[in-house]
Specification:
alpha+beta, Chemotaxis protein chec, 6 helices
Length: about 200
């Protein structure tokens, strides 16, 4: 069900901002992993928060969540969800085990790169000044990971920009789900900056 508060044109513009960020993310991740990677965004959607949670997968799935608070002229929370197997694959490329302090740090850095790329695209196109706080990595069931993020968002009708990215490194395929949860005021200001405000 589309988000009734935003027009198709506005949602398309928000998706396009996210698509631009994926190109930057691909370049940065390639440098970190020391290998050429292919990163595509097969799906990008703007959903209400409750719908975004359902789209991320089954609540009992064990995942790694990387949470990065965003502050500045737009307040938001970024969440990168990496499946357990995919997290192990990414960490193996860096020569570390996922479920260790070093592995958590590596996944946090991957999350930071992804978030920085998407948020950087927003900042460049809108002229916003945005700051990223240090990432926090956690491994738990998807339902519990999302619940911890929801704790900071009392309104389940808030907009979530959701990207499911297909990442391929040296023939190994991984799927990453990225959510950006701006406050309603933040979305309004964002749309205004790109000329699509009400």
């Amino acid at each position: 069900m589309p988000n009734a508060r935003y027009t198709d044109l506005q949602l398309d513009a928000l998706r396009e901002l996210a698509n631009i960020g994926s190109g930057t993310a691909g370049t940065a991740l390639s440098s970190l992993l020391g290998s050429t990677i292919e990163l595509s965004v097969p799906s990008a959607s703007a959903l209400e928060l409750a719908e975004a949670v359902e789209a991320a997968g089954a609540p009992e799935d064990v995942v790694w969540g990387v949470v990065v608070p965003v502050s500045g002229q737009v307040d938001a929370t970024a969440l990168l969800v990496i499946g357990d197997d995919d997290a192990r694959t990414l960490c193996a490329m860096l020569g570390v085990e996922a479920d260790t302090d070093t592995g958590r740090s590596a996944l946090g850095e991957i999350g930071n790169i992804m978030v920085s790329s998407y948020v950087g695209a927003l900042a460049t196109m809108t002229g916003f000044e945005l700051d990223l706080r240090p990432p926090e990595s956690t491994r738990d069931m998807l339902g519990a990971v999302v619940a911890s993020v929801l704790a900071a968002h009392s309104d389940a009708h808030e907009l979530a920009l959701v990207l499911d990215s297909e990442l391929e490194v040296a023939g190994e395929a991984c799927t990453l789900s990225f959510m950006l949860l701006p406050t309603p005021a933040g979305v309004a200001e964002l749309l205004h900056r790109i000329g699509l405000g009400d």
